[in-house]
Design a protein that fits this description.
Blueprint: H1 10-13, E1 22-26, E2 29-33, H2 39-45, E3 52-53, E4 60-61, E5 74-77, E6 80-84, E7 95-97, E8 99-100
Parallel strand pairs: 1-7, 3-8
Antiparallel strand pairs: 1-2, 3-4, 5-6, 5-7
FE2/S2 (inorganic) cluster (FES) binds at residues 63-66, 68-73, 84, 86.
């Protein structure tokens, strides 16, 4: 039998004892991440499900496949666009921003 709330988190289910949390940010909002989390996992843990908009239509996107195949999870991380958030380990101080389209809008292309 599982406890309600935190007892059913992935870490609790496998009885993981991660190291101390550290800070990252998403669109200027401070978040915490745990060692071993991908950027996508850290965003999910904070309740953030979308961090990119499509080139045409501006539809929101986040992680879909979770294994690096679909490219739906592209994000701008530390000013580098087109980073696959599901594969990229979160690092202390990472600055993640919503990626609009190709992430190169500042180039006018
Ligand atoms: S969620 Fe599919 S590549 Fe990241």
């Amino acid at each position: 039998m599982f406890r309600r709330g935190g007892g059913r988190s992935p870490a609790a289910l496998v009885r993981a004892v991660p190291g101390p949390a550290y800070e990252i940010s998403f669109d200027g909002r401070p978040l915490t991440a745990l060692p071993g989390q991908s950027v996508a996992a850290a965003l999910w843990a904070a309740g953030i499900l979308a961090w990119r908009t499509t080139r045409e239509g501006g539809s929101p996107r986040g992680a879909f496949c979770g294994i690096g195949s679909c490219y739906d999870c592209l994000a701008t991380v530390n000013n580098r666009p087109n980073q696959r958030a599901c594969l990229l380990p979160a690092r202390p101080g990472d600055v993640i921003t919503t990626q609009e389209g190709t992430g190169h809008g500042d180039l006018g292309v």
